[in-house]
Amino acid sequence: MSARITPGTRRDVGLATWAFAHLAGRVSGTEPPAVFLTLGRHRRLFRGWLHFAGRMMPGGRLPRRETELVILRVAHLTGSEYEATQHRGLGRRAGLGDDEIDRVSDGPEAPGWSPRERLLLRATDELHTTRDLSDATWTELRAELDEPTCIELLMLVGHYEMLATTLGALRVQPDRRRG
Q1: 127-146 pLDDT, tens per residue?
Q2: Rounded Cα–Cα distance for residues 81 and 75 (Å)
Q3: Name one Pfam family in it (predicted).
């Protein structure tokens, strides 16, 4: 399927967004990320979204490795090929092994997760399925994470669910690797 809104040119997104996307592509070893050049067509909204998203990834309270586990699980649950493709590479850079990245699709009960990883994945699944957490899961999260980090986890899952919906409806294609 072709994109419903194609990634913008420098004129469409503005010099700052265009330069940012090209730098991000160089850093990740891909073409300039289509997510930036597509969403960047709405310049004002893009800047606010980028600031918000950056507070969770890469600037969040959760360790990057755990953030990537959660995002990869959301990508799997939502069927977001764009998110999955982007975050496999980012997950590797955050310290996830290929076996762990592959195991994300097996879910929280797959052997090999630490108790904390299993809890984060289970919370992600519950939020995806019910848009809520059981009292038992909440109690476990609060024993493991402080209040701000719990809030961040909830918003991280919700954000990537929203982004998967947007990217899917716009039919944004995964970025090609360079070289």
Answers
A1: 999 999 999 999 999 999 99
A2: 7
A3: CMD
